[in-house]
């Protein structure tokens, strides 16, 4: 065994010497290392001979790639725009989120109010089921195609609920609410201009024979369920990403199918505000402010009981979109 080991050591040293000699033959005899001719098997050589001299290792290194030149004015401007869009901490991107909320609420009210207005203009064409399912499908589509921009709240009650959960900064709530109301009003005005029917047919009012209080309780209950679904699918424990759009849309459809006869199943102050402003008719509008907001607050309390405090990265990402995500920090609003 001793002889075998000694013989192996001798053979190993001889092979090592031969390989080094081959490398030096490729590199050249210049001891100052000014000549650099990297062999094709550089990595293999380094793996086999880790004890090459620093000079030899430098000579076998691969040449550096070309250094990119400076960008031109147009390329610099394009890069700055891309950097601002991808920088979540850039408040200059707020206009994108606000536009997203305005556009999304516009499409939502276009479908929600349009069902009633079209039904009046074309009797018997649009059924009650179609009128309540259309806005549900619209919300699903909106969340899918631009939920990552603003969070796709489309509803002041949802914005308030996310803020109560600390998933959304309070300072951004007023801007969201204002553009949601504007989007809803624009949709009602567009419908009135196209269909030439009063926007009152697209709004929500307590059913004949039912009090405003009955409609208030119905809105509170329905909104509690809606916001609970939204907060639940956005939470860290149950975050299902963009698939949550189907849960939200399904709930809106189901709530409308059974709850709309009494209150209209608005669940959204902006959805009722737009047609009411366009028609200047605010009959029992307090129901559609107080009911959804009270339901949102109750849903926030239920979420706390089920999952504790909010403010995590997952919930904040769902509430705010990906342009500017702020996890909750103690002492900041």
Question: Which key terms come to mind for this protein?
Answer:
single chain; 333 residues; mainly alpha; Glycerol uptake facilitator protein; 13 helices; 67% helix; disordered N terminus
Write up this protein.
This protein folds into two domains: 2-60, no CATH class; 93-320, Glycerol uptake facilitator protein (Up-down Bundle), CATH 1.20.1080. It is 67% helix and 0% strand. With 333 residues, it is mainly α. The protein is globular. The model is unreliable at 1-12, 30-38 and 43-50 (pLDDT under 50).
Shape: globular
Q: Return the domain count.
A: 2
The appropriate CATH architecture of the largest domain is Up-down Bundle
Q: In CATH terms, what is the fold-level topology of the largest domain?
A: Glycerol uptake facilitator protein
**Secondary-structure class:** mainly alpha
Largest sheet: none
Portion of residues in helices? Answer: 55-70%
Pattern of helices and strands? HHHHHHHHHHHHH
* CATH homologous superfamily title of the largest domain: Glycerol uptake facilitator protein
Give average pLDDT, whole number. Answer: 79
Work out the helix count.
13
Find the count of extended strands (DSSP E, 2+ residues). 0
| Beta-strand fraction estimate | under 5%
Task: Look at the structure and give the CATH class of the largest domain.
Answer: Mainly Alpha
Which spans of ≥5 residues are poorly predicted at pLDDT below 50? 1-12, 30-38, 43-50
Any idea what the radius of gyration is?
33 Å
Span from first to last CA?
Answer: 76 Å
